Amino acid sequence: MFWRKTATASGIDQKAKEAYFTASQGQLIFARFKSNRTAMIAGWALILMILMGLFASFLSPYDPTIAGRDTEYENGAPELPRMWDENGFSWRPFIYATERERSMKTYFRWVVTQNREHRLYMHFFVRDWDYTIFGIDTTVFGHRIDVALIRSNIHLFGVEGGKIHLFGTNESGKDIFARTLHAIWTSLAVGTLGVLISFILALAIGGVAGYFGGWIDSVLQMITDAIRTVPQIPLFMALAAFLPPEWSSETRFFFISIILGLVGWPTLARRIRTHLLTERTQEYVLAAELCGASSSHIIRRHLLPSFTSYIIVDLMISFPYMVRSETALSFIGLGLKDPVNSLGSMMQNVSKADVLLNYQWYFIPVLFFIALVLAFVFVGDGLRDAADPYSDSKK
Fold first, then answer.
1. CA 276 to CA 228: how far, in whole Å?
2. Domain identity same for 253 and 355
3. Does residue 340 or residue 151 have the better pLDDT?
4. Quick one: which of 309, 134, 281, 141 has its CA closest to 211?
5. CATH number reported for the structural domain that contains residue 386 in this entry
6. In a domain, 16, yes or no
7. DSSP H stretches of helix in the chain
8. Range in 117-131, 234-248, 282-296, 352-366 the model is least confident about
9. 139 vs 307, more confident
10. Residue 61 domain flag
């Protein structure tokens, strides 16, 4: 019996060893990443926020623009559903109806009070405003382009006979919950487009400089160092001064994304150049050259795949910097503005003294911004440790 257990255990160990030595690079990185509990938690949090942003219109009960504002609940506090109160228990979640009136105590300013005798019950999968997911609605050369993968007017929840605002409303009555979810998606979209542009430029410039070397490398490094030394805030201030005021929100969105990508590639380009300067003298590169392979083929099929994992890690780490840059620009008024919902544009009002004293729920988007950046940072750190074969020996 003991011999059978030992044989079974040894067979399992042998299969585990075979699986380890036959696993691909991606499988090894994923296995090491799963052992990092902090990175896994951050990864699930990041996936959750991405899904929240992607399906923001479905999760939002009201339109985040001025069309969906609640004129009877301006600067309203968050309304959390409940299932019981002093009037008894309810199987359906509910909120209270609100009444707005002017009060002498507040110098005749509008005051919102709750009517605890009037319940508004929640409903799920309700129909309201129309929305699209993965859609484009713009005008190009006088022709309107309106394409969408999903068109619907079904929303996750709502209330009967009124409105519910989980995160409260702003001064114009817009729902902060809906604006926050759409802002997450906007910031992620800006970061994705910016990272994509910087990634393509970094691969092209860093690959050419590292492979050819010589005077080509010297010229490209002069350009790279020149872009790295340009201060970004004065640059964006100068660009903002030349932005036409009649530009639409979509045009401003793409312009900000492109500018972020054009100034974000030098760091990755230098890393690619450094790696290729080392790898280009290896024997497999010489063998490819003797076989008649072109320079572009060698860079694309042999040199760049040799450190693909590090490129992926660098891209993941670049995301929070892109999101942070967009948020900072929008916060100081140089980036995206209303009616575009971005985390930066929503954070413009949190520095006002009136908000700090009376409307603390304006800080809810700030918490989502912190969570989004931290999730990217922890996932990037986890991927970096998983892609480094010597990370265990450093501990």
1. 21
2. yes
3. 151
4. 281
5. 1.10.3720.10
6. no
7. 2-22, 25-34, 37-54, 56-59, 176-212, 214-228, 232-242, 249-262, 266-279, 283-290, 295-298, 308-331, 343-346, 353-358, 364-387, 391-394
8. 234-248
9. 307
10. no
Structure tokens at 241: 């001064």
Which tokens go with 364? Answer: 């809810």
DSSP codes, 274-330: HHHHHHTTSHHHHHHHHTT--HHHHIIIIIGGGGHHHHHHHHHHHHHHHHHHHHHHH
Of the pLDDT bands very low, low, confident and very high (cuts 50, 70, 90), residue 390 is low
**238 and 114 in one domain?**
no
Structural domain containing residue 235: 180-394
Is residue 232 domain-shared with residue 327, that is, in the same domain?
yes
Alpha-carbon Rg for the chain in angstroms: 27
- Is residue 313 a contact partner of residue 384, using CB atoms and an 8 Å limit? yes
* pLDDT tens-place string over residues 327-364: 777 776 677 776 678 887 788 777 777 777 778 898 99
**What is the H or E stretch that residue 92 is in?**
strand 88-103
Judge whether 1 lies within some domain. no
Domain boundary among 104, 130, 164: 164
Give the domain-ending residue among 108, 137, 164. Answer: 164
Sheet containing 88-103: order of strands: 82-85, 88-103, 109-140, 143-159
Number of Cβ atoms within 10 Å of the Cβ of 328? 16
- Same domain for 150 and 290, yes or no, is no
What is the rounded distance in angstroms from the CA atom of residue 23 to the CA atom of residue 15?
A: 12
Measure the CA–CA gap between 80 and 89, rounded to whole angstroms: 16
Q: How many domains does the chain have?
A: 2
Q: How many CA atoms lie within 13 A of 153 on its CB side?
A: 4
pTM for this structure? Answer: 0.81
pLDDT, tens digit, for every residue of 14-54? Answer: 665 565 556 666 777 788 888 889 999 999 999 999 999 99
Handedness of CA 301, 223, 315, 192 (dihedral sign): negative
Give domain status of residue 374, yes or no.
yes
> How far is residue 84 from each of residues 93, 94, 315, measured CA to CA in Å?
8, 9, 48
